[in-house]
Amino acid sequence: MPPSVNDAALPHPELVAAIPRLRRYARVLTGDAARADDLVQDTLARAWEKRRLWHAGTDLRAWLFTVMHNVHVNQLALFRREAGNVSLDADTSGLAWQLPVRGNQVDRVELMEVVAQMGRLTADQREVLLLAAVEEMRYEEIAAVLAVPIGTVMSRLSRAREKLRRLISEPSSTLRVVK
Amino acid sequence: MNSSPPNTVSDADLSAYADGQLAPEQMAVVEAALARDPELAMRVADYRAQSGLLRDALDTVLAEPIPERLLAAASSAALREPSLVRRWGIPALAAAATLILGVGLGWFGRDAMIERAGTPTTFARSVAYAHALYAADARRPVEVWAAEEKSLVTWLTKRLGFKVYAPDLNGLGYALVGGRLVAGNEFPTALFMYENADKERLSLQVRKQSARPRSGDAPTGETAFRYEIENGLGVFYWIDDENCGYAISGKLDRTQLLKMAHVVYAQLAVLEASDKK
After folding, report:
1. Could you report the predicted ipTM of this complex, rounded to two decimals?
2. C-alpha separations of B196 from A154, B12, B148, B172 in Å
3. Is B197 on the interface with A (CB under 8 A)?
4. pLDDT tens digits for A121-153?
5. What's the pLDDT tens digit per position in B81-117?
C-alpha cells in the first residue's frame, strides 16, 4: 500500500495497542511507574504534533519509541538545566531507578535479581537492553530510535549484557568461595 | 578501540549472535569460535538466559490495566483535526475565545484537554473560565434566577453536599442574578452571579477542595486570601478550614475585588455561625 504521508491521522487501534509497550519502555527509562505514565502521556501528545512524520504502513510502535526517546532526552536536558549547579551523574537524572517486581513474580528470585541489578547499569545500557532483549527490535530499528550508528547500538548492548552478567554472578561466586 | 583481528570474535558479535542478528557472513566465524571455546559458548547461553529473565520480569507490565488518562491521550492523538486547544493554544483559548469555544466544547472536554496539555486546572483558573463563560451570556447567565433564591440555595447545597449561602452584595451595588451548578474536576462548583446597575457582573464560586492540595492551589487548612489574574480576570479566593474553596471574580481591580471578598467572607462567617447555633 502506498504510504500516505499527508494523512494527518494516526490509527487509533494501533495507538492504543502500543500503550502497554510504551509504558514498559517508559518505566525502564524513568524507573518510576508514575513518571513513566507521565512520559507516555507526553509522548502521545508529541506524537500527535509530529503525526505528519509518521508514514502510514510503517511500524507505529517503532516510531512512537523514537518519539518517546526524544521526549525523554529533552526532559532530562531540561531537568539538568533546572538543577543548575547540582552535579548529576551523566547517566542518570539523579532520581532513583527502581522497578517494582510484583505479585506472581516473587517466587522467582532470579527475576527480582535481574531487575535489581538492571538498576546498576547506566541509563543508556538499560534502554538498549529493553529495546534489544525485551522488545527484540532489529538493531537497525534501535539505531533509528536512539539516533546513533548501528555499531554504537551493538557495542552498548554487549557492554550492558556483560556488565549485567557480572553483576548477577557476583553473589553466587561469593557463595562458591565461601563453600 | 581494540581492532579485532580476523577470525576473532568481538563482544558485540557474541551479543548479536545471541540475538540472532549477526550478519550472515560472520556466522561461520562465530560458530567456529563457540565450538572451540566453551567460555564463549557459556557467555552466549548467559546472554540468552538474561534476555529471557528480563522478558519474564518486564512482561508483567504489559498485562497491567491501562490508565484512563492514557487512553484519552491516545484518542486525542488519533484525531485528524486539531483540537480546539491545540489550534488556538492555551493563551488564546484563555482569552475571549473561551467565551465562544467553551460552550461548544463542553465543560468536561475543555478541562480534560487543558489538563492533558499540561496545564493544571487550578481553582482560580477554573473560576475565571466559568465566570468568563457565563457572565458573557446576556440572556442565560444562570440556571436559576434570583427570584427563586431560596430553592437555588437549597438545590446547590444538596448538590455540593455542604451548606452554601448566597451573600447579599446589595450594599456594594451588586444584586444577585441567580446561580448555577458548574462541573469541576472532582467536585461540582456552585456559581452565584451578581450584577450592578451598569450590567457588570461578578461571580462567587464555591466548591469542596480535593483532600490532596493540587499544586497551584492554596494550601488547605488555613484561611488566607489569595489573588490571581487569570485570563485578564481578577480572582480572589480562599479556602476555609472545612476545606471549602470560595472565589470571587470579575472585571474589577484588585482593591475593589478584595473589598468584595472581605464582605463575602464576613457575611459567610456570620451566616455559618448563626446556622450552627
Report:
1. 0.85
2. 73, 78, 19, 9
3. no
4. 999 999 999 999 999 999 999 999 999 999 999
5. 544 444 444 454 455 444 444 444 444 444 445 444 4
**Cβ contact, residue pair B57, A139, below 8 Å:** no
In angstroms, the separation between the Cα of residue B187 and the nearest Cα of chain A is 24
Q: Which three cell numbers stand for residue A60?
A: 507505529
| Strand ranges, E, within chain A | none
Q: Do A154 and B16 touch (CB under 8 A)?
A: yes
* Residues sharing a CB contact under 8 Å with residue B139, sequence separation 6 or more, in sequence order: none
Which residue, among B157, B254, B169, has the nearest Cα to B204 in the 3D structure? B169
What is the DSSP secondary structure assignment for residue A3, as one 8-state letter?
-
List chain A residues with CB under 8 Å of B46: 165
Contact A162, B11 (CB under 8 A): yes
Taking a C-beta distance cutoff of 8 angstroms, is the pair B123, B246 a contact?
no
* pLDDT confidence band for B130 (50 / 70 / 90): confident
The SS3 call for residue A136 is coil
The model's pTM is: 0.54
Which of B57, B63, B118 shows the shortest C-beta gap to A114?
B57
